[in-house]
Amino acid sequence: MSRPGPTTFQVQVLRLGFRALRAFAPDLAQRGAERLFSTPRRHREPEAEREARRRGRPFHFLSKGLRLRGHAWGEGPAILCLHGWEGRGTQFHAFIEPLTQAGFSLLAFDQPGHGGSEGRRSGPLDWAQAIQDLVHQVGPIHGLIAHSLGAAGAAIAMDHGVPVPRAVFLAPPAQPDPYFEHLLDLLGFPPSEHAKAFVAYLQRTGLPPERVRLRSLASRLSSPLLVIHDRGDRDVPWSDGAAIASAWPSATLHITEGLGHRRILRDASVIEKTVAFLGEQAGTALPFHGDGLRSLEWHLYQRDLRMEDRVPQLTLT
């Protein structure tokens, strides 16, 4: 979930700038911190991901007025794959062959502000809305796999009624608070202001704290869940995954060793365990609205189904 840290010089420049801004316009300083926190960087796509993209069927859909890019592979019940912060849907390239050979199709897209999708700023409610918009357009999914912050977006979408029969969370963060507070610390905000600034940030995004912290949401959700987390994860501690699995009524926790935060997406044993878990009830998988892959393509490519006014907006209830 975390991004590579800025250089010492960049930190010094930012701290000086925010110190001056806090002295004259505290609210603007806080909003500036929120902007930094909500603005992902786009990274170069490695060759393995480019090759996967070339083998996939591209599609686009609208979410909150933004054109988001996705790809589909295979036929059969759909597994939706959700990347993490500053990632891309094609990061799940190692899952393509195992899932399609197991009889599933794989859908993956770039969240707002990521990869080939439009947008600059991104947040948990945006991610949840994008998930809801895609599921609304392609029909029911059999399950999902979410990495890192993608798990938070998935949980929020599920909490707002998106049906997910089975889910796998890879290295999920229990709550975003520590990452926001780390940024505030880098910018020179005193610790006494951290909690208040985080609540203000959530208020502006439209989510109360208890509806954005995955650990808090866990007790509200009942779909079978497999949490896989590496004990040596330096970005999101494995204790976060353990806390989520403990609070989720029907969750199973699997701890790995030596994979860290990103290699977990390419590990053969992790992929095998994930596919087996998703396939436990494959016989009862939800079909697309119609006849298999042709129906999926029809939903993805029909122009009128990509119109924003046809997609309900996610609202808090």
Can you characterise this structure?
The chain is an alpha/beta fold. The protein has a single domain, classed as Rossmann fold. It has twelve helices and eight strands. An eight-stranded mixed sheet has the order 1-2-4-3-5-6-7-8, with helices on both faces. About 7% of the residues have low confidence.
Average pLDDT works out at 86
From the alpha-carbon coordinates, what is the Rg to the nearest angstrom? 19 Å
CATH class: Alpha Beta
Q: Which spans have pLDDT < 50 for at least 5 consecutive residues?
A: 285-295, 301-312
Helix/strand-derived class?
Answer: alpha/beta
CATH topology: Rossmann fold
Major sheet: size, sense and barrel closure?
8 strands, mixed
Strand order of the largest sheet: 1-2-4-3-5-6-7-8
- Oligomeric form: single chain
Please outline the helices and strands.
Elements: H1 8-24, H2 26-37, H3 47-55, E1 57-63, E2 66-74, E3 78-82, H4 93-101, E4 105-109, H5 124-138, E5 143-147, H6 149-159, E6 167-170, H7 177-186, H8 194-205, H9 214-218, E7 225-230, H10 238-247, E8 251-256, H11 268-278, H12 292-301
Parallel strand pairs: 3-4, 3-5, 5-6, 6-7, 7-8
Antiparallel strand pairs: 1-2, 2-4
Helix pairs in contact: 1-2, 4-11, 5-6
Organism: Geothrix limicola
Region (Disordered): 35-54
Domain AB hydrolase-1: 79-266
